[in-house]
Amino acid sequence: MDETSRILGCLTGLAVGDAMGRPTELLFNYRRIEGRYGRVETLVGDRPGVVTDDTRLTLALADAIIASGRMLTADELIERWKRDPEFSWRKFMVSYRRDEGFWIGEHLAAWGGRLGVPGHLTGYMNPSSLFAGNEAAMIMAPVGIIFRGRPAQAAEAAREVSRALIVGEAVGAAASWAAAIATALSEGATVRSVQDAARGYAPPGLRSAIDRALSVAARYRDVYEVRAEFYRCCLQPITIDARETIPAALTMFTIADGQPMKAVIGGANLGRDSDTIAGMAGLLSGALRGVEGIDPGIRRRVIEANGFDLDGYAERLAAISARRVEPGSPLRPCV
Q1: For 5-33, what is each residue's pLDDT tens digit?
Q2: Rounded CA gap, 321 and 327, in Å?
């Protein structure tokens, strides 16, 4: 399969999953989703196709990396974000609106940078650091793309840049997810090799949660039927916890055998943090199977609704990997 298709599949799978999961996240429980929509297998809800912070923040990270021409440290990311119009005061004031803004945590990090806090410390300003929040893991697609086929370097780079956003076990969760993406984009990748990468680079708490979820997934072939048992066995006290969303995304990825639309539909119908779960399941599946596995009509509607140039992002991120990032030195200093 063409590498370009898989990189584009990664970014497109994220955007499509995010858009399909956006309306169902607000319903929280999968039974409420059924009551409102039945089974969500296309774009639904108000402003169908519009994405949330998951995709927008991923592209904000990509923009910073592309502008630098290489992978960034936490300090370098905050230096860029504190000057980025997307993190302006006006944007901060609407950050609670999921269609228009970002999560508050990233804004607080950028404002910390403006106040002189170095990027390797701004993660302490994010309230989600009290648990294993999603903020870092959910935006790791650019890191996985740059270090495709090199999961150890992807994990290292993810741990470094994630310090700008969050601290604690969430940093290890970002490393786990970046390694999984890098593996999904590697030559000869399989569902099992991706699972192994996610487990192998996960901190102990997340690894236990992944093992529990995959043991549940192994008993199912239907993304709808797994939901009841997943709710009984695999939920965290707070929905936006990477120790829930990563295992949930891997569950749908596994049951779908890496087929993007099936994985996305599973995530969108699971409930809880369904935009993140569907986006994560979609990006991992798109990376493994390519953009051809994503419904072209839904893909087109998501692109039109948001005005994204995902082809351009895919091309530019691929070029950074090929030309600027040297093996054994994923985080070269500024020059």
Answers
A1: 999 999 999 999 999 999 999 888 999 99
A2: 10
